[in-house]
Design brief:
The chain is globular. It has 339 residues and is α+β, with helices and mostly antiparallel strands. It has three domains: 88 residues, Rossmann fold (3-Layer(aba) Sandwich); 122 residues, ATP-grasp fold, B domain (D-amino Acid Aminotransferase, Chain A, domain 1); 77 residues, Dna Ligase, domain 1. α8 crosses α12 and α11 packs antiparallel against α12. 34% of the residues are buried. The strands form three sheets. It has a five-stranded mixed sheet, sandwiched between helices. A five-stranded antiparallel sheet has the order 12-11-10-13-14.
Length: 339
């Protein structure tokens, strides 16, 4: 018999983690596979000094902390590199592939990301080399001229991060200058706004995706509207595919993707969310689905000893992007690669 230890690397979350621990414990699984009986236990990972040669006791780690707390991030990188621990999500691509890189990849693949610009810091970075570098190489620009090329309305938002922190809707030059002044030392994107019919957020866990209607204008507890079949089947399939492509490309298995639907067009706007919101106070109706899928994926990966893929392999995706195929055909090819 083999007992697999699933580690939860947590910050201030108590709802989903308690549900995960309780349900997995009540299931008391004993799965027969590969000539062995597989059982499961959970443990909350503590943060403490560690030797790089110290073997971990975990088979699988659900990481909800390392994107902002660097000591446990380096532990996750160590145990995946040295010890074969399976972690969601891939700490290397999660660290490197912020929203900016994710936009670049999806544009390269031909998805309908709205026009997006990266603008320099408003305030100087805290580095003694800044003054010389800026004087020699920073080209003066008028942010209003950039905005005129994009067209109003638009959004100014951080090139990395999440939770709608620092996001501003820009209706005109006054909004633009105020938001830019307030951005300080945060690197920002300007992104063209889309006049949409439906705002979707799709949550992907492992191989499964739930597409939900999202209402950003509502309070956080009421943003996931419980409604089914709210998208045309072909549009719904493209929204679902978009989230799966992001995950497969970056080797993520736990991510949310926001897409705007206007007519029969899908515009991905935010999809580097590899520590997605799964709070019961947010998901409500969809919370049981999320927890059950997270348990299922954890159990599947540990039982089958699924190998974790650390390195990226963009070439197959770029071959599809460069082929003489229609957009719809490419989306289907991307879905095949993702699956």
């Amino acid at each position: 018999m083999t007992t697999h230890k699933i580690g939860l690397l947590l910050g201030n979350e108590e709802d989903w983690s308690l549900a995960f621990e309780t349900i997995l414990g009540r299931l008391d699984l004993a799965i027969e596979h590969g000539g062995d009986t597989h059982r499961f236990t959970t443990d909350r990972i503590t943060i403490e000094p560690f030797a790089l040669t110290a073997p971990p006791s975990y088979d699988f780690v659900i990481d909800r902390l390392a994107h902002w707390y660097y000591h446990p991030r380096e532990w996750v990188k160590k145990v995946t590199l040295m010890d074969g621990v399976y972690a969601i999500n891939n700490p290397f691509s999660f660290q490197a592939m912020e929203k900016h890189s994710a936009y670049a990849v999806m544009l390269r693949l031909g998805f309908k990301v709205p026009e997006t610009w990266l603008i320099p810091y408003k305030k100087p970075v805290d580095n003694h080399r800044w003054a010389y570098t800026s004087a020699k190489y920073n080209k003066a620009f008028d942010i209003r001229e950039v905005a005129e090329q994009i067209g109003y309305p638009m959004y100014m938002k951080p090139f990395e991060g999440g939770g709608w922190v620092g996001v501003s809707r820009i209706e005109g030059p006054d909004d633009l200058e105020r938001a830019y002044d307030e951005s300080g030392r945060t690197l920002m994107h300007l992104q063209k706004a889309v006049d949409y019919d439906v705002f979707t957020r799709s949550l992907t866990i492992g191989a499964e995706t739930m597409v939900m209607k999202f209402r950003p204008e509502r309070p956080m507890h009421d943003r996931y509207e419980v409604v089914h079949d709210f998208l045309d089947p072909d549009v719904g399939r493209e929204v679902e595919t978009t989230g799966r492509v992001v995950n497969a490309f970056f080797r993520w298995e736990f991510n949310s993707c926001e897409s705007l639907v206007a007519g029969d067009s899908v515009y991905p706007i935010d999809y580097a969310n590899a520590c997605p919101d799964i709070a019961v106070t947010s998901l409500h109706y969809y919370f049981p689905w999320a927890i059950s899928r997270l348990i299922a994926w954890s159990v599947f990966c540990t039982t089958t000893r699924r190998p974790m893929s650390i390195s990226l392999d963009p070439d197959p995706w770029f071959r599809v992007a460069d082929a003489e195929s229609s957009y719809a055909e490419k989306v289907e090819e991307y879905r095949f690669l993702a699956d």
